[in-house]
Design brief:
alpha+beta; Outer membrane efflux proteins (OEP); 4-stranded antiparallel sheet; two-stranded parallel sheet; 9 helices; 6 strands; 66% helix
Length: 399
Amino acid sequence: MTLLTLSAASLHAQESLIISLDSIEDRIQKQNPDLAAARKRIAEAKGRLDQSGRLSNPVFGIEASQDPSFDEHALSVSIAQKFPITNRLALARAISQTSLQAAEAEVLDVERRLSATAKQLVIQILANQQHRQLLKKQQTLAHQFATHLSDSADKGEGSVLDAGQAKLEAAQFTNKLRQLSARSASFHGQLKPLLGMGTTELLSVTGNLSGFHLPSSSAHTNQRPDLQAAKLHATAATQSAALERAKSRDDIELTFTAGVERTEDVPVGYDSEKHFGIGFRIPLPLWNKNKGAIDAAEARSERKHLEASALDHKIQHQASTAYTEMSEWAKIGREISLNLLPMARKQAELAVKAYHEGQGDLQATLRAREQVLDLSSAELKALRDFHLAKTRYQAALNQ
């Protein structure tokens, strides 16, 4: 029973989160802590929207008076309410509504940037894994070659020096694999916080990088949420300028009063009188016309529109640059895959054959094998950089 418990605990401890390029966005949406915090911007904006466009609270007043003899007295109450004579409240609510839409777009942009960063890390990990598989295959071939030379040297049919050189060549792969493991640990360490994982949780990345498939070229930037947010902020700034102009006329104040007064009417006696009244207070725009605030709001509106235009221009360049880079890496990768790598493999086979037949030296054989490895690594690097550029292109256009 104890063994079963320990076995179950061991299996549970080895469980890991499995993700791929296709599932990374869903994990970011559900578990990323930065995105969860960013979503509170929407709640804040909704609160400001609920508060905007409301009248100020009415003011209740009470006034009492008494003569020295306490025979005559008066009591009156009043309610005063301010009302805007412009569309100030409607503008304030419109600004809050626009700001809410901008907050929603900003949250989507946080998600876009986090997803792009996570995808790039996944691509690096997948490329690392494929590079590791490539090195292991080369390591196996190198060990087989070294073993063959050692056996030949033991039989007196080969050079002991060549066998030692081949062993050294095979041993170097262990160091290269360790370097890849170190880089992989770094990429995992950067990716796990994005996925909302703890430091001790295990992460497994699955899948392979596909070939050099170029997406269709596009110049449409209207799907970028940060651009949408910038345009909404520009709209809100324009609305704010209109609000400042509306504030140049202060609110009017309407007052309702009611009271009762007890006075002495000689020689009749004391009499109680009731009264009701209504009053207006109309501010005169003589000294403060809110000109400074209007000028500042209009300048801010112009700045926000220019910033949105500049961002649009920047996004177009980002997409164009990423697409050009992607195209170049595709050309490089296809050239290596279709032309250079087949030639190098054939040359390596001929070099090994020539060495076994005594018509070539070991250095030429090792150089030929190294060229195959270098070109295979270059092909993988081109594939990795192609997908990194593709991710940047898709993130630039929010595809």
